[in-house]
Amino acid sequence: MSYFEEYKAGHVVLPHELLSNFHILFTSELDFVVWLFFYENSDVAPSTIATALNRDLVEINTAIKNLQSSGSLKVTILEVAGSVDTIFDANYAFSKLDEIQKAKEKNIPLVLDEKTVSEDQFRDLMQSFEQEMGTITPFQAEEIRNWVEEDDFEIPLIKLALREAVLNRKVSLNYIRAILRNWRGEGIKSESDINRKREERNLADTRNSNPSGPSFHIPTGQWKKN
What we know:
Layout: H1 3-8, H2 16-20, H3 22-25, H4 29-40, H5 46-53, H6 57-70, E1 74-80, E2 83-89, H7 92-105, H8 119-133, H9 138-149, H10 155-167, H11 173-185, H12 191-209
Antiparallel strand pairs: 1-2
Helix pairs in contact: 4-6, 5-6, 8-10, 10-11
C-alpha cells in the first residue's frame, strides 16, 4: 500500500521518508509546522495557526503559498449558499512522497518542477499587494500566482497594474485583473511594452502639436491703406 493510500485509510503517523525528503517537500521548518496543522485538521484557519505559533498571519500565508508551490498542500475554495469555505488538503505531501520513492526505486533522477518565478520574487510581489490591500488570503494569492504562471504576466507589469489601481483609488483584484486584460488586448505583456506604448503615444502627441509641412501665419490686424 502506498503512503497516499495509507494516509487515506488513516494508518499513517509520519513516515521516516517524510523527513529524509524534507528539502523537497518543504522549503522551511515553518512550512513543515504549518503543514502539520493541516495534516491534523484540514479546516483549521490560518489565523488559528498564527496564534498558536505566535507568528504574524502574513508569515503563515506565505508558508501556505510555499506548500502549494512545492505540491505538498492543495487549497480548495468552496462557495456554498453565499458563504466561502477554504479546505486545506495535506495528503498531497504523501502523494508527492510516493512519486519520490518510485523514482528512487527505478533509479530515475527526480526532476523538480521548474518555476516561472522564484519564491523570493513572488514573496516580494505579495508584499507589494499587502502594503496596498492589507492581508492577502490564500485564495487571493493563488489568483495572483496564476497571473504569473498561467497567464504569463511579468511581475513588473503586475506591479504597474497595482500602481494604476492605487492611483485610481480602486485597489481590488477584479480591477487589477481588468487592467491586465485591457493591456493584453493592446498587445502589452511586459514593462517594456508599456514603455514602447508610452513612447508611441508621446511621439503621436508631438506630431499633433507640431504638424509637418509649411507653417502659415495669418495676421489678425487691420490691413493698412496706402
